[in-house]
Amino acid sequence: MSEKRQHKIFKYLQQQSRVTIWLYEQVNVRLTGVLKGFDEFMNVVLDDAVEISQGKSAKQRKLGTVLLKGDNITLISYED
Questions:
Q1: Angle at 45 between CA 39 and CA 51, to 5 degrees
Q2: Cα separation of 79 and 71, whole Å?
Q3: Is residue 20 a contact partner of residue 76, using CB atoms and an 8 Å limit?
Q4: Can you tell me where the transmembrane regions are (predicted)?
Q5: Residue 9: CB atoms within 10 Å
């Protein structure tokens, strides 16, 4: 891989981007927050994290800084 090309998640980390994370086996719950770190196991640190419950009774809960284990992550997307 050339130096000009880098993984998207590393770009999100450098830019302190806000991301949305879909959770494995919890299809009605998303986490959103500022990406602060990750490792080779895709463990992720989010700052200003918010848990968003979807469905009939949509709720949001502020969590602050969280460490999310990589096994629980299905998808990471950039939040516009």
A1: 135
A2: 21
A3: yes
A4: none
A5: 16
Over the stretch 28-44, which tens digit does the pLDDT of each residue have?
Answer: 999 999 999 999 999 99
Cβ(9)–Cβ(35) under 8 Å?
yes
Query: pLDDT per residue over 40-52, tens digit each?
Result: 999 999 999 999 9
Q: Which of 39, 64, 38 is nearest to 51 (CA)?
A: 64
Q: Are 19 and 79 in contact (CB under 8 A)?
A: yes
Q: Kindly list the structural domains of the chain, giving each domain's residue range(s) and its CATH number in brackets, ordered by start.
A: 8-78 (2.30.30.100)
Is residue 76 within 8 Å of 70, Cβ to Cβ?
A: no
